[in-house]
Amino acid sequence: MSTTRTPVRLQAVSAPDQPDVTPALHELYRGFEQELLVPLWTEIGDLMPAHPRSRAVPHLWHWDSLLKLAARAGELVPVGRGGERRAIALANPSLGGRPFATPTLWAAIQYLMPGEDAPEHRHTQHAFRFVVEGSGVWTVVDGDPVPMNRGDFLPQAGWNWHAHHNATTEPMAWLDGLDIPFQYVTEAQFFEYGRDELSAAERTTPRRSRSERLWGHPGLRPLTATPAPAGDSPLLAYKWEFTDAALADQLALEAEGHGGTVEPGHAAVRFTNPATGGDVLSTIRAEMHRITRGAETAPVRETGSSVYQVFNGSGTVTVGDTTWSVTRGDLFVVPSWESFSARSEAGATDSDSGGLDLFRFCDAPVFEALRLNRTRRGDA
Ligand code: 1HN
């Protein structure tokens, strides 16, 4: 492997706490450069900021623009071995053109044409699919075909074999979230190709996957001889009907005076591992929030970054100093320690829930495991 040596460049500066810039000081700094040394006193402000200053910026992508480009890619670019997936990633404008929505999270629109197959492979990166519209694709995870329909959340833990198969006559698009940028800095990634063709049994299209039949019963842990895999969720799909009912029940309880919501007019659920109650993936947290028409959430800052997708309804969201109007499918990024709030309003798209439904994923499990998580509620 060839290595390129990045020169160290140091600038002697005059500052109240620094010695005068003399020829001797210049010579000391040239000595540091030659030996590839950097003194702390020139770097400390950047290395140890008083609070997080994300390299990422808040940004919004409109779903209708993404969908048009993905559909055009469907006409022009085949899917197959090598490229593996027709996935088009959100590139945060301040992350150097890399396909990184935030410093830790990948988010992409994936598009599969009628009858197409995305070939089997596996990787250490943890992933999920979230379906904002459409149906007709089955994702096959370790041989288990799992249907994907609007509102469904499908975790895809690292190192499982997976392929996708569009069994219908319509194209389908969905959101992919992965921890690719995080794993990139860990330098612990592995990837393998699987089989080129799925078996006939794997190309069937059952209404429920085997994983849902075993693990998808609320509060009931199967006493199965098949042990739950360590860590990641054994449940491969969280169907919209259950998510929707949970949110509707929270708001109904609140209306009846029995609490249940996060704050007035704001219901929320987290997708969890039914075997442990913990996060659905070891590096990614996923949640669905419902804000009733006219309600507004209190601003919250958190360490770690999030990506949101509007699932239902319209409204405005404020990230740091920026406020956007958003509608179904739109995606936006909340960088670390930027405050976030959302308001539900009548807008361009009808809402089947009567409010603003926001799907959110974030890197909180990593921050919690490392005890780097911090939250601040309110305007401060
Ligand atoms: C991948 O395997 C999928 O399986 C989606 O659908 C996006 C982005 C980079 C690398 C692998 C998928 C991906 C990916």
From TrEMBL:
**Positions of the region Disordered?**
199-228
GO MF terms held by the record = oxidoreductase activity, acting on single donors with incorporation of molecular oxygen, incorporation of two atoms of oxygen
What InterPro entries does this protein's entry cite? Cupin_2, GDO-like, RmlC-like_jellyroll, RmlC_Cupin_sf
Q: Which residues form the Cupin type-2 domain?
A: 110-176
Sorted UniProt keywords: Dioxygenase, Oxidoreductase
Checking Gene3D superfamilies in the record gives:
Jelly Rolls
Q: Which domain of life is it from?
A: Bacteria
Q: What is this protein called?
A: Gentisate 1,2-dioxygenase
